[in-house]
Amino acid sequence: MRSTQSPNQLFFTPEEYFSSLTEDIDQAQDEIILETYIFKLDATGNQILSALVDAVARGVKLRLLIDGVGSYYDSNLIADQLKSQNSEVRVFHPLPWDFPVYRRALKAGRWYSQFFYLFASINRRNHRKLCVIDQKVAWLGSYNITADHLNLSSGAENDYWHDTGLRVSGSVVQMLATNFTHVWQRKQGSIGQRSRHFMARAEIKRRRQPKLHLISELEQCRQRIWITNAYFNPTNQVLRLLKRKAKAGISVQLIVPKRSDVVFFPLLSRSFYTDLLESNIRVFEYGTRVLHSKTILIDEQVLVGSTNLNYRSLFHDLELDLLLDDTQMVEQMQERFCRDISDSVEITLHHWQQHPWLLRLLGWLSRFLRYWM
Residues with Cβ < 8 Å from 99, sequence gap 6 or more? Predict the structure, then answer.
């Protein structure tokens, strides 16, 4: 999706992001739409849940969609606390053996049809992050509803993850609300209708649209492609495109994590370094914080959202990103990208060739699983 609306606001710290989000929820008057991969009842999750409970109690309508894997442990507790005629909680693709959640599944049907559908869909997750309030403001980005982003377990002050959040207003908010409704309304239909839809060419095309849109935007690039991404595992098409753009003289720069919440993922990302570096793509490893952002500067536009440049985001999961033509936000993101580079280590071909051969081998071996990651 593309927005030309202003003012918009970027958030780089979890404290400011969740505090401002809570303030907007507290001011809601008519409706709250909330969609998230992880909703965990820790300090942050309870803060958001309390604000939602208060909003529902004062008559605000709530539609909450959480993922069956990301929110596995707390989905029933969250739904029970939000039980009201003003609210509805649904779970996207519960795990097949999670029978108590079937009644809240996004897809309708008896338990046996649910079981077979959910088993077939176990690898497809809803990784989106979206909150729309009163059809006036919308929130999206890389923040799940959990204190994990604050990294409180480290004990270090201000040791929070590198994330990017976005608050927007204007006509784009209605577009985002409509987009959410398209996902929400998939509950309709019999098992027979769902089976036909599942196998239809239109469904396959729909799944590919986000990938094709990203490819289209990158193809049109003329000056720069500056990527910050938590889980870099590009498809062959994306990899070829980046290499071709760099060889054509376009500035292609990539910031990836030195350490990750998915421990082995840097090994997989590093298996692409030789290809990238030989194509004049500059690669930086960021190690100051756990990098979880998903942003791209494409010429004078900025892409912010939930999509990782990996197979899981591009082929399996539902994702949501916004492409903004906003001069102030582009400048902010550019400044942040440059600061992140100064806090990173640039990887050169010579440096990479000195890397322990065993770690390079493990990275190559991990490619056998790349389609599922």
Answer: 111
pLDDT (0 to 100) of residue 203: 35
Structural contact between residues 269 and 279, judged by C-beta atoms closer than 8 angstroms:
no
> pLDDT digit string (tens) for 41-82?
999 999 999 999 999 999 999 999 999 999 999 999 999 999
Closest of 178, 180, 216, 199 to residue 323, by C-alpha: 216
3-state secondary structure (DSSP) of residue 317? coil
Rounded percentage of the chain residues whose pLDDT exceeds 90: 63
Residue 211 near residue 314 (C-beta atoms within 8 A): yes
**How far, in Å, are 50, 62, 64, 160 from residue 100 at the CA level?**
24, 22, 18, 35
DSSP single-letter state for residue 105: B
Name the residue range of residue 7's domain.
Answer: 2-199
Q: Hey, what amino acid is at 160?
A: Y
Do residues 110 and 80 share a domain?
yes
The answer to whether the beta carbons of residues 17 and 140 sit under 8 Å apart is: no
Residue at token pair 């998915």:
262
327 shares a domain with 223: yes
Does one domain contain both 195 and 270?
no
Structure tokens at 239: 């990899």
